[in-house]
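pasting for the record
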Amino acid sequence: MIISLLREQCYNISFLGTTTPVVPTTTIYTNQILNQTSATTNRQIYLLSSPLTASPLLSQVSALYIAQSTYETLTFGIRNDPGYTWIDNISVLSNGHELLVNGNFEYANNTGWQGASHLGNTCGVCSSYCYNDGVTGNPDYVSQTFQTTPGSLLYISFYIGWSGSGSAVLANVTIYP
């Protein structure tokens, strides 16, 4: 898992022919490869449950995953009573190719995503659009299914931040074939 704390100043970086606004980061590297043995269960990428404090700065979370099927689904389950959880710059790379559509929500809509539709502006990386969920009671779910090659290595990353703390704050990120 790679965790990065964002700083305040943005700049552009060009990688594989794509220019993206990014923020300088401080990164802690812990690599993991997730290899699912059962094709019928979810594989957890990230779990935030009952944090003691809010984390209003977006942090990067990354994981390596071995694709199990020709289609995989990445799902975010979010609940935050009484605050908000922000998700941005969601990416799934395979051999340098982005497999997701609208992972940064810059279309200003849910294009490519299924489920809940909670978008906000000025909440994402570099003050752009992001998925901005403040649901109370039960979690909301947003997911995207994408095509893969079984056995290929996927690099999954996203940024997350949240206001609020305690038992009513949850973010569960899973992938399944």
